[in-house]
């Protein structure tokens, strides 16, 4: 167990979350969220003194870069890590403009802009593309503060960028954010990294390099093992917001003070457990009955909705349509890096008027669930009424809005506004974003649990769309069936290629490419092959008959 990285371990609090009541599940997820701040086992999470000192050091570095005319701050990551970097750079660039500074923050996400709202997992494995993109964005600057985020200390895309910084110390200051000790950084080699390099090698080199900074507090295992969008994503957001906020404002406060304020507010989310549990139940019922979930929001609130939705695809192999987010203003589109005109990101990024939204939503399956984020509930009232006439379920997440729900309304409201008491407007908004992230993560995670996409606390239908996920899938199969690594890998590969024959002549990269053309439940089929000694064809037939993937693991299929 000790060699298993914290970010891949199983959390003792959620071992049976798939059998919990919705209220208990909401409580368990909240307790896991608080581990980010209070710590896990003997680790102190974001309250660790040594870590907080380093965070204060980063504030000094960011301040210096903001004041340097030839300096920029580049934030990079894959999947959720890249998306959180994008949101932070978007928000704080806005603050730069308000402070009469040029935009000083730049984001990079593996897979480009489309990876902000859809799942583009394979580029995570490419250190060459990572380094080339960093080189490109930093070309016209003399000083670059590079912040690479990889929760598991694992992504070669970020590894290649850190290596590039270490090779060019006159220009770059490398900072690594992740949530494992360096000794647990990934040691697996990837085909595109020459000289047998690994992420562990780069992280160890950083440890020995003066001026390089590693920020890796231990926040403990994810509520759903490996789902780093959850606690690790929360910790990433809190760290970036704290540092950028302190560097952009005239304050004597330290990182500890800001984090404390985040902690106290997030703790208060517990007061809304009953309402959160009611929404989870509705979201679960909706998904079980093949309804869709839609989020409607504007500015960064709307973007959080799109991001939460996009992450469900690789984590639970859900369809793109199951959960989707929509924007009501063009804030997202205006925040994007320029890319070639033919690189389609998503039509949903465009500003949607109430009429556009009605055109899109009028054919939703019966009993779908539409979540209006903050002010959008009142701004879209006509749409709310039309959706209610069609008997869809409506949820309002109230954050900063000062309006109230009409009496006799049968809309389900979760009111967090009373918990957001910060006197500072910027902090109010950042806290509201964090609450929203946690609330949406809780709803979408718990809805997939109710749909049977989780066994105990394991994501049993993960999409095997990069090397990390390939090895995670093998570990899941081994753990749940007791077979050895070779058998687990053999069945996984047969399931990927949809064949009863053994495949021995393909590389791991070819396996990942083959996944892209396979819409099957790859891991569940492999699980069943191992559990019941079935051929691929027999297992596939069985899975096609069993809509609840969890039932395979409990023998109820
Ligand atoms: O590969 C998929 C994924 O696990 C995403 O879900 C996650 O957001 C991304 O990788 C990044 O992981 P990390 O931050 O550990 O590099």
Automatic annotation (TrEMBL):
GO terms for biological process: carbohydrate derivative metabolic process; glucose homeostasis; response to fructose. GO terms for molecular function: carbohydrate binding; enzyme binding; enzyme inhibitor activity; fructose-6-phosphate binding. One of its GO terms (cellular component) is cytosol. It comes from the Eukaryota. Keywords: Carbohydrate metabolism. It holds the Pfam family GKRP_SIS_N. The keyword Methyltransferase does not apply. Residues 62-253 form the SIS domain. SUPFAM superfamilies: SIS domain. This is SIS domain-containing protein. The lineage of its organism: Eukaryota, Metazoa, Spiralia, Gnathifera, Rotifera.
